[in-house]
Write a structure and sequence with these properties.
2 copies of one chain form a homodimer.
Chain A (H helix, E strand, L loop, with lengths): L10 H11 L3 E2 L9 E2 L1 H20 L3 E2 L5 E3 H4 L3 H7 L4 E6 L2 E9 L4 H11 L8 E10 L14 E11 L2 H21 L5 E4 L11 E8 L4 E12 L3 H4 L2 E3 L5 E3 L1 E8 L1 H10 L16 E5 L8 H15 L4 E3 L6 H10 L4 E5 L1 H6 L2 E5 L4 E4 L4 H26 L1 E3 L12 E6 L3 H11 L2 E6 L23 E8 L1
Parallel strand pairs in A: 3-7, 11-23, 15-16, 15-17, 20-21
Antiparallel strand pairs in A: 1-2, 4-6, 5-6, 7-8, 8-14, 9-10, 9-22, 10-11, 11-14, 12-13, 17-18, 18-19, 21-23, 22-23
Amino acid sequence: MVDLPDKAERFIDWYLAAVEAAELTDKRYEVKGMNIWTPYGMQSRRALDALLVREVERIGSRAIEFPTLIPQPQFEKEKEHVKGFDDQVYWVTKGGASALDIPLVLRPTSETAMYPVFALWVRSHRDLPLNVYQIVSVFRYETKTTRPFLRVREIHFFEEHTCQADEARATARVEEDLAAFERMAAALALPFAASRRPDWDKFPGAHYSIALDIPVGQGRTLQIGTVHHYRENFSRPYGIQYEDPAGTLRYVHQTTFGLSERLLGAVVAVHGDRRGVVFPSILAPVQVVLVPIAAPGGGAAPVEAARGLADRLRDRGLRVHVDDSDERPGAKYYRWESRGVPLRLEIGPREASAGTVTAVNRLGERTVLGPGELDRAVADALSAFDRTLTARAESAFRSAFSVATKLEELSGSTTVRVVPWCGQEACGHRIEAAIEGGVLGTPERPLPVDPGAPGPCIACGERSGARWVLAGRPL
Amino acid sequence: MVDLPDKAERFIDWYLAAVEAAELTDKRYEVKGMNIWTPYGMQSRRALDALLVREVERIGSRAIEFPTLIPQPQFEKEKEHVKGFDDQVYWVTKGGASALDIPLVLRPTSETAMYPVFALWVRSHRDLPLNVYQIVSVFRYETKTTRPFLRVREIHFFEEHTCQADEARATARVEEDLAAFERMAAALALPFAASRRPDWDKFPGAHYSIALDIPVGQGRTLQIGTVHHYRENFSRPYGIQYEDPAGTLRYVHQTTFGLSERLLGAVVAVHGDRRGVVFPSILAPVQVVLVPIAAPGGGAAPVEAARGLADRLRDRGLRVHVDDSDERPGAKYYRWESRGVPLRLEIGPREASAGTVTAVNRLGERTVLGPGELDRAVADALSAFDRTLTARAESAFRSAFSVATKLEELSGSTTVRVVPWCGQEACGHRIEAAIEGGVLGTPERPLPVDPGAPGPCIACGERSGARWVLAGRPL
């Protein structure tokens, strides 16, 4: 029962310790960067997937699933795309004892798996829009240091792919996806920045890429998702055409929307504290833990009260655990705190006879609930916890950005910087060198700081065309 | 709008046509035997997974997920097991441009992925039983002809793995899994035979294997799952030991329970008819389709009535579709029949004004529902459909078995045969040659035919040790 490493000072050490203490994953699998989803981690992943499914189906996407393996010729059709992934794909070259005629790639993402088939699915304007998604494993042969959820070689991945009739409709779809992500992020209490990446950092094959970044302290950011506009960059090589109402053949405009298990890493990184993980209730494998506390030589009243209340909470659809093991209460508190349970209910003999519980939420707020309508009071306390968590995250988000107008201000920055940039790539690289990180791009949503009108480019001093961009240090 | 091929005469042609007409899968992916889950197929798969999860969690299994790739040395630790899979695994040999130091196998099943880690998870008797499952893709380099859902190279797979304290507890777990499968099969209206496979046909590394077979007509059977008892066959090579309460180190006894997308193939094969797929309601992507029928030049009353009723049915948790497209009603009926929708509601102007609907279920039974409490009447009609489907399947199941006591009766058999066998492998192979199929094994559940006491072995005439076994022609 020792505190974790200091989160601000030793972020990565803290992160690894928090994930470990919560038993969200087991890293002892024999292949580096391929981790095991433990029962507890798997429950949070399932809750996360359910949230993604709910929000993406709300905007009309339908679940599909394409094969894991992609034949080499199909994979290599879009030149820029394959160039972007060439170094980081796994190759299947043998089946049984014999070499395969055509090597197969373990998908790093599914554009090249899906698009030849989209060419068969899309024939007429009546087939549009085509909005589909899958939640699958993708594979990247990472050479950088791997970290649970943040950088792994087998990635639990959400990918939406859409075909639209024209560029404007594809742009509108990008907006719909961003709005869906806003709802997901709100449910997870995760404020984020959406930035149009500079050209040198967009997705291989994209017309433009909007990345979703979450500040995780000290000027660091975590890219947890992207929405891409492909224009006709894939539909031309893969031949995805439709007949418009006038009988003309046109190429579709495509978009994608990608998220991954990094979102779980972001939840750990943003909400966690010195005692470990803090789950927003939507993601918590256990939302309420009940700890009955028997008096020395006392009766079974606390256990019975806990079990009765647990049943009523389950009837309300809550995920509940009664910890009636014979450990000391302190050890139990510690374990469930490090596992991020939003709400703990302590029930001693006094509470049991009064029909009350002492509720302590994961942010340390303590209240007495009841008597009467306890299950409703617990549900309310859980909602109140989520609101507090959101307020805390929003406050941290506001403090995570600050304006800089001189290059020398960027070095060692402990915030994400909002800087004026002329748009030239050379200046962009000077900004990146100064902050020892990256130009995240042009904000697509209002920022928590209002920088006013942009001054001259922070790098070259040129006034014309200057716009505000975000610069930070991607994890 | 033509009928499908004759199911009894040309079963495989019928099967392929039925799957195609229902648009459950798209076979046009560039890798043979790796198919695409379409939106409609994906919905039925999701419903199937939800059923498996519900029943297996009821018996205390928890979801986990292990990596897709298994390092060669780990894969090759249990000799018999690797021998069984050697010819049918895909090998990953390259990452980026360079050869991997250690080749990786795409899991054909996960024993060898999981068990080295189970050795870390299981330390004490308090860690037992360990009951976990995953639902993932597994890969087999099939050389036989591939068929959607029945024989594919990327398989949607359910696998439960358990560690028990001793052999008796492992045997008891096998029984719990069989009981869980009975509940799943009942929900799917799929009667099945559970047979202890002969030794030459058990799973590589198993102590014994109980296979779940479904008769699909003409003496053919479809193996849709297995439950295996491994004794210590894996725990010894992988070192899975625990300290018992007396402080002695013991090897665990292990079991597995496997099911796959074949279960969906079995639903098609068993319930389908000349018009296509028939879904039991639990699996149907659309459970109720409402077809409003406007009178020529008539008003919107049927459409409005259909939409209002659809909303009420959705509130009851039903999966509902209103087909208000401008096709002819006949074309709509045909499409939804071939897609297996259990219940169609026809609403014309007369029905709309009377507050009734004409309900036609997928087995052709027609009734008028209402007026009043229409949503409840629809739900009842759906339950009645499931009962009829079950009764029909049970009747077919009973007719699918017959006793044979002479080898010459086996040739060209159109039923699964119940035959007396002495237990010698040579006699088993003579039975298999005679029926041009396989000895399925000793029934683990009462058969629909009661053969009385077994007579002499059908192959050698030996009386002693003779028992009834099933023999059929596995698809």
